[in-house]
Design goal:
alpha+beta; BirA Bifunctional Protein, domain 2; five-stranded antiparallel β-sheet; three-stranded antiparallel β-sheet; globular; Endonuclease_MobA/VirD2; coiled coil; Relaxase/mobilization nuclease domain-containing protein
Length: 541
């Protein structure tokens, strides 16, 4: 999916934006990274172009324009607007998106939506914090340089005239997001609805808090491992993440609002209230409630009410035989979809009170944990009896079989994804071939081919690259049919979705059995974490 982000800047140093686009920066401190001689280090790969300006003199040209119209002279004025267009990481592999192609699409987008402005368009291929996704920075001077033809998205009469500033309204931002969605769909790139509220709303502040917390946790875990201690937690969790995970678990089993509220209070110590028809949650370590709206649509009233109603209907309907989900190995063939639907239980791991710092410091919290542990012990015993595990060996055999089936389904899913990637590449190059075929015919019939190639070098290069790729893919030399390719893509996409659902079911079932194993080890007084480390070391040797 491609997402659009906007940042308004009051920084009068336009050169700072140029340096950020061309040189390496520390994403945590937003300061440039210097070599041993104190010089800036260029980015490994980037594509930079200027619109209505030279990209390397962007700062001076912006200052000259500001001085001409006597604007952007005070500290509180917005000097520039920074738009970030981030593409889905899957587009690189599945749809053949490259940095050069992303740069061309973004230049088209910037010229269409910010006409008359001086703009820098720069594509980075390394992603934020080396994540690998291709993203584009569009930095425009807030002051328009040229008069342009009035467009439908312009709300004021002066929005098309030189000397007036870029005016971003709510409706204008909606238009920009819609244009991003239309662009990605036209180019057959991954895209979601940017105009609908997010199911899980993560702000920039939470994102950076999570990154800093994960970095600190990784450092502490490295020290613990060096001292011979196995860390019990490897993934940092923000307060909002804690609430989301707890709400998700509670919503999966609750049938009414009372069940939901009771589960959150007893299991996680989360207070729940309804104010003016809105759901709000209080983290145990906070003094102020967080609204469901700040967490995402899946944590608000409408979604949770529908979820509870669905749970109530499922409870009334006939449930499948538990033994059917237990014996998955007899009904599943590697590469095919399993013939069962996994229904997740509410089974949780028993908490180790001796290693829980909060329980040691808070007696009331320790009592709640003890009560929860007793409930989980009872549920574990009931689970074992219900599924007919007579010995530890039976439980271990079921777990290993579930683990094997999960691995087989994962291989099948990866194989389908690989075939889908190949078909997407063929569709991409077939479209590229057909789009530039007429230009190539003109080139063949041209009297001065050298001059024609110079004038249409980009189109001819795309055509020849597509023809070379398609001939290499087809053994008989025939070009593939676009209709057949799209039909094959639909079949593979449907198979991929089915395999993903089956894989998630198998993985959840494997995790559930592992929870039962761990709780049994705890009942018997064994250190499961230490045993797991020993098993890994044995597997390596």
């Amino acid at each position: 999916m491609a997402i659009l982000k906007h940042i308004a800047s009051k920084n009068s140093d336009y050169g700072e934006a140029q340096r950020y686009l061309m040189f390496q920066y520390n994403e945590d401190t937003m300061k440039p990274i210097l070599d041993e001689n104190g010089r800036l280090i260029p980015r490994e790969e980037y594509y930079l172009d200027g619109i209505n300006c030279d990209p390397f003199t962007f700062d001076m040209e912006c200052k000259e324009l500001n001085a001409r119209y006597r604007k952007n002279q005070t500290f509180d004025e917005i000097k520039s607007h920074h738009y970030i267009l981030s593409f889905d990481p899957r587009d690189t592999e599945e749809n053949g998106l490259t940095g050069e192609r992303a740069q061309q699409l973004s230049l088209e987008y910037a010229r269409k939506n910010f006409p008359g402005h001086q703009a820098l368009v720069c594509t980075h291929t390394d992603g934020n914090n080396k994540s690998g996704n291709i993203h584009v920075h569009i930095v425009i001077n807030s002051l328009r340089k040229y008069d342009v033809e009035r467009q439908d998205f312009m709300e004021r009469s002066c929005d098309s005239r030189a000397g007036y500033k870029h005016h971003l309204t709510k409706d204008y931002l909606v238009y920009l997001k819609q244009d991003v969605m239309d662009l990605c769909r036209r180019e057959q790139l991954h895209q979601v609805d940017l105009l609908s509220p997010a199911e899980k709303k993560i702000t920039d502040r939470e994102y950076h808090t999570r990154r800093r917390g994960q970095k600190k946790m990784d450092e502490l875990n490295r020290k613990m491992i060096a001292d011979g201690v196995t860390p019990r937690k490897t993934k940092f969790e923000t307060q909002k993440d804690f609430l989301r995970n707890a709400i998700k678990e509670a919503a999966a089993s609750a049938r009414t609002q009372e069940d939901f509220q009771k589960f959150l209070a007893e299991k996680y110590g989360i207070s729940f209230k309804v104010s003016r028809g809105r759901f709000s949650y209080l983290h145990p370590d906070r003094g102020k409630y967080m609204t469901g709206r700040s967490l995402g649509t899946h944590y608000e009233k409408e979604y949770l009410l529908s979820r509870w109603e669905k749970n109530a209907r499922q409870e009334q309907s006939q449930q499948p035989d538990p033994e059917q989900s237990a014996d998955i190995s007899q009904n599943t063939i590697p590469g095919e979809l399993p013939s069962f639907v996994f229904i997740k239980s509410n089974l949780r791991l028993v908490v180790d009170l001796q290693s829980c710092a909060k329980a040691q410091a808070n007696a009331a919290y320790a009592r709640r944990v003890k009560l929860s542990n007793l409930q989980q012990m009872a549920k574990t015993v009931a689970y074992i009896q219900e599924h007919g595990y007579d010995t530890e060996e039976d439980l271990e055999t079921a777990f290993e079989e579930a683990k094997k089936q999960t691995a087989d389904m994962r291989k099948s899913l990866r194989s389908t994804e690989g075939k889908l990637k190949q078909v997407n590449e063929q569709i991409h190059y077939t479209g590229q071939y057909l789009a530039n075929k007429s230009v190539y015919r003109q080139f063949v019939n041209s009297r001065n081919r050298k001059k024609f190639r110079q004038e249409h070098q980009a189109e001819l290069a795309l055509y020849e690259a597509a023809r070379k790729f398609l001939k290499a893919q087809s053994g008989d030399g025939k070009l593939p049919s676009m209709k057949l390719l799209k039909e094959e893509k639909e079949k593979l996409a449907a198979l991929k979705n089915s395999q993903q659902e089956a894989y998630h079911n198998l993985r959840d079932y494997e995790k559930e059995l592992n929870t039962v194993r761990t709780n049994v080890e705890t009942f018997l007084g064994r250190d499961h974490s230490r045993k797991t480390v020993q098993e890994k070391e044995t597997a390596r040797s």
